[in-house]
Amino acid sequence: MKEFEKLGISVPILRTIEEESFEKPSEIQEKTIPLVLQGRDIIAGSATGSGKTLAFGSGIVQNSVKGKGIQAVVLTPTRELAEQVAKSLIKFSKYLHLNIVPIYGGVSINPQIDKLRDADVVVATPGRMLDHLQRRTMDLKNVKILVLDEADRMFDMGFIDDIRRIISQCPRKRQTLLFSATITREVIDLSRQYMNNPVKISVTSYVDPKKLKQIYYDVDDKSKFSLLVYLLKKEKAKLVMVFCNTIKNTDFVAKNLKANGINAIAIHGNFSQNRRNEAIEKFHSQDVNVLVCTDVAARGLDIKGVSHIYNYDIPKESKQYIHRIGRTARAGEEGIAINILTHRDHDNFSRVLRDNDVEIKKEPTPHIERAMIRWKDQPRFGRNPRFGNNQRQRKYGQSSGDNLNQGSPKRFGSRNNREGSGQRFGNNSNSRPRHFGRRRFRRY
């Protein structure tokens, strides 16, 4: 606790730190907190889980006063990270009673409008904050501290223009803190335009390379999923994250892992907020130990105890590989990153090896049994689906395969019923009333 006192943190925050059983500052906290409390602008290279929330949160909580309007804004790339940061700030401000309000999309905007009236600190995703600014339900004229958390990811997600508009609504005389896992060109350009002589801080990787084992398997397409099932059942793992590049693959992998007796759950951008929260809570509480996700859905998730990372798909951007493997081998714990390659992944994998200083060892492919795969959903109520499963869709009108003259009347209903069946119509003088085949009713 004395080490935190030396950083200049006030007594109310120190009480919370002691209650939360923080033993000593992390590297990013030790280097950043004194500068934050001095009011300096900062560019810090730091990943999720390194303790950066306390690094910028100490300055926000210590320099904000209840009831003076919105005095600090934290921008985050995802809803989940906004919630996590807000919860942490609420803890740190426990004895100062600040009103911390998280705002993000995917939920009703009206309750947020009510909460913003008394907000002291706002933690937001850029898109929803811009919505509030356009509606004039938020005023940033009193902002003293602006934090861009995981700035590189916000830029990757296309929020750069939204961020610029938000910054333009803040006072010029303010403190700006930028945290980013990678210092990209966009980060540098933004800092030159909107920051005042920022101090650049770099820390050693939160992931211990000595504790992280990286391997890969090279298999054919048909064996890829079977190998994943084999490894998940063989390896003794507490919490596992399986990364896919697409929503389609994420659903496919999660569904078929469950079909093979593996306790897995998916999370991706098409989920509603409630469904995302439910999946994350199950993984946090270890009710489910395998989380299948896309990069976008996993952004900002700070989950401790992840022992295995599986790259079912190799990311297209090499820096995403670093983000993925950075979720294991944390804080002195051992971890393993396993890459499953087919010929489709070779280009992306070569890019990862070229752009990053990583050593990934090839492992021999074990003899495995073919896993069960469900390519399509099972039909409901034991019946065959009306279309699909190699069944042809019923056609209305003339078929190219019918041996009919071009001017033949159209037929409706079963093809086995031909002339005289009561299912023809046209200008035939003997034409009968129109019928459209037997009417079927499905029971529910």
Features:
444 residues; 16 helices; 14 strands; seven-stranded parallel beta sheet; globular; Rossmann fold
Task: Note down, in words, how this protein is organized.
By secondary structure, the chain is of the alpha/beta class. The protein has two domains: about 200 residues, 3-Layer(aba) Sandwich (Rossmann fold), CATH 3.40.50.300; about 150 residues, 3-Layer(aba) Sandwich (Rossmann fold). It is about 35% helix and about 15% strand. It contains 16 helices and 14 strands. β12, α15 and β13 form a beta-alpha-beta unit. α4 crosses α5. The protein is globular, with a radius of gyration of 29 Å.
Question: How would you sum up this structure in a few lines?
Answer:
This protein has helices at 2-6, 11-19, 27-38, 52-63, 79-92, 110-116, 126-135, 151-156, 160-168, 185-194, 224-234, 247-259, 273-284, 295-298, 318-325, 346-355; strands spanning 42-45, 72-75, 100-103, 121-124, 145-149, 175-180, 199-202, 212-218, 239-243, 264-267, 290-293, 306-311, 335-341, 361-362. With 444 residues, it is α/β, with parallel strands linked by helices. The radius of gyration is 29 Å and the shape is globular.
